[in-house]
Amino acid sequence: MASKWNCSLAVGMLLFSNAATCGADWAIVLHGGAGTMPKDQPQETIQAYRAALNDALQRGRNILVEGGSSLDAVENVIRTLEDHPLFNAGRGAVFTHDATHELDASIMDGRTLACGAVANVTTVKHPITLARLVMERTSHVLLAGPGADRFATEVGVDRVQNEYFSTENRRRQLDDAQQRQRVKKQADPLKDSSLQRSDERYGTVGCVALDRHGNLAAGTSTGGLTNKRAGRIGDSPVIGAGTYASNATCGISATGIGEEFIRHAVAFHVSALIEHAGKSLDEAADLVLTQRLPPGAGGIVGIDAAGNIVCRYTTAGMYRAWAKSDGRHDIKIWD
User: Fold this and answer.
1) How many helices (DSSP H) and strands (DSSP E) are in the chain?
2) What is the overall mean pLDDT for the chain?
């Protein structure tokens, strides 16, 4: 089965990345979504993805090298990915059924368990920054819809027209999804096909970092699901589902079928297995992805308190990159 194959390969990568990591000075890992493009893509397309991942990785790495905080590293990595139209976050976000864009993001501080999130924002250029401001300037955790956009006006973050997030590629994906939806509706008029997956490319971007002060942080940002109902919210802005960080255990960012990640509280579940069952980060991630979730549900990246890195997924691949203070780093798309 494909998921078993992918996970076994991911374990091999983890064994390498875990070697000699106890007491790591700093570490960072990011993802650009589980599920990938076919391997027969033109080399320039593949290189464009690798270059975008490397650009984001270097932004975060430089902050950590200079002694900056894990929160700053996570926010800046995700802002970089939100700016890049290749990924399903910020510019390049997928379309809703109504041909608009509704964006979600969250961020969490492992030192204090402080967290902030926004959902269904429509004019915020960098949702991850607004999520951090919810954490730092309000007593709330999650703001959604028009209220979140009004808060964005109050705090003065960068704003754009909703059309800014559109790309021709995402428009084609919407057209294809709606055509399939019409065919399925004819076959079964009573079935809601708005959330039928067109492929294994779940999009979403995320980052986890451990800074030189021993503090973990995690964040996730997404445009959601192509052809989703207006108002739908996935796991990315849900603390404990798509994002979680605690200095006592780990930081996690997830990507995949949001409804499944919410049902199983995936990000917190990994942390709980470390804290209460004595599992390693690798063991906990494997257990949740392969035993709690359906095959092909998605993937996670994470770092534990000792600086061990995990990149696990049950899809055909995951856009991912990582770096550590010992000089090792990697960028991968497929196994």
Assistant:
1) 9, 12
2) 90
